[in-house]
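Go through this chain for my students:
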Amino acid sequence: MVSFPAENGLGRVPGLFEGGRLSPTQRRVARYVADHPREAPFLSSVELASRAGVSQPTVTRLAVALGYGGYGDFQKDLRRMVLGGAEEEAQGNKFQAAVDEEMGNLRALRGSLEDEGTVAWLGRELASSVPLVVVGLRASAPLAGYFSYFAEKLHPDVRTITDGGSAGTDRLSQARRAGAGWALCFVMPRYPRETLGMMRYARGSGMRVAAVSDRVGGPVSEAAEVVLPAGVGTRLVFDSQTAAMALSAALIEALSDAAPDRAQANLEDFEHRAQSLGWFAE
């Protein structure tokens, strides 16, 4: 049995880790959750396993041993406990609770970026892909649009696909024939089958695929070579994507760092045109 300190939100739900006989490695996961109650509920099973120093299946087996259908159900309970506790302490409303959850998502993202190597590497890979394909359908379309809007100021040829079906696949094929080596796909829940299909099509045509999604694992990881996780807020009627937006900004920075001379030249050209044409009210 693992007990939690009474002062944190998890301690408000007695017996969370009782009722199941935990193995030594499962107890390591439980202890990590107890010691990091504001961060652990927002980590994917892969991230939690890495932080606790165990395998990902150990995390899943812990959830099952505690009576959950899988890690997702276990994680939802953890989030509810932590955010519920914080809400009680602050006497906040549901909108404040939604912000609290996003703050947790941002903290988890910050932790995942401690090793900046993956984002820096992906920035270099995306910078070398000409053209660069960016895909985002349905709820993920705004994220794709945000990334592409700024990436176009740094990269010579960004092709954004926000429509699925045959039209989207045609544009993907055209980009591949033009030399595209990478597709960056935004796939936030719910995961559109069209997006997953385009990701598989891209890989089948010889392109490499990176994804920004809410978690590592599941259908997105099956379709992508690399997945960068950014949790979503689920407290309101529709999901919020604050962490994914922050991760997109980090990827844009990495894209700039990968080809600094090209980025600087493009930015100077943009600023010159903006000033000469009076685009902005200073």
User: Anything to note?
Assistant: Residues 1-15, 86-91 have pLDDT under 50 and may be disordered. Residues 9-92 form a domain with the Arc Repressor Mutant, subunit A fold (CATH 1.10.10.10). The first strand starts at residue 132 and ends at 136.
